């Protein structure tokens, strides 16, 4: 007598689990499409990397031309850009980022290409586009520079200045891009 009720309960529970799975997949897809369109305009001071007035962590990296790079080697003030070859908004923002790097005072520029493999078209394109403007580093997605600047989203851009022997973030995102060359300190 209880067997038909037990079978019905198991079938109902299975159907509810399947419905829950389908709804979860739909929500994840929606979130991914909304997240994919991030640009530097969307980067808030506390989003994607260290906020203004934060101290940059210590790092040791190697530039694409083989030189070692530490915080002491970075000119002050400097514009620092983080791009990822697999990121569509990074490719869209590349001309604006290149213009900001070209306008940086005293060529205090650090461009970090995080992710991708040498020899891949997107990676090589980014490295080639950024190389004329200053120091370029190619590292893994969680390399020493992305960790020091606590980069969690791409593209990311900031201006740093040396204060008391440490690098301090002055501004991030669109603030760096919208500053005219004459206003850059």
UniProtKB/TrEMBL annotation:
The entry's keywords: Plasmid
Official protein name in the record: Thioredoxin domain-containing protein
Taxonomy of the source species: Bacteria, Bacillati, Actinomycetota, Actinomycetes, Kitasatosporales
